[in-house]
Amino acid sequence: WSSDVCSSDLPDVTGVTDFTQATNYTVEVWCWINSTQNDTGATDNEIVEKWNSGNESAYPYVIRWVRGSSNIHMAVYNGSSNPSTTFSAPTNTWIQVVGVFNHSGATLSGYRNGAFQSSTGLSITGTISNSSTVNLGRRANNSGGGNNYFTGRIGIVRIYNRALSAA
Prior knowledge:
It is a single chain. With about 170 residues, the protein is mainly beta. The chain contains no helices and 13 strands. It has strands at about 10, 25-35, 45-50, 60-65, 70-75, 85-90, 95-100, 105-110, 115-120, 135, 140, 145, 150-160.
């Protein structure tokens, strides 16, 4: 689907879409990033995220498109610590983006089209889980709508309850 027309969400399911700082998990998305984003109210456009402006005190994952730098941004947040990794991505073509949140190995790694791009330390304590839905193509807001809409296509989203290896 094209999110300049619609956005979607997945329900919160503990251990399936929502994870804790003691859990390893991987988020994969196939997307087509339009070179022109329709929603330019913020610096980023949301591709996949477990974040809600009414419940932003913690989130286990976000994958965003940062227009000004043409980068994919992946992050986790516990209310004060915000480990993230960023890497470049092309527009107007299908790409695979994978974030591996390996809490036991203390690394957050980003991959594009199967190739390692970047990583950062992922030593985080406190709560990162929340009861928000998983948003596709937007960030949810308090009124049930959204913002930071993504213009492009999202073809496949996979969420794994383990840290996938580079292989």
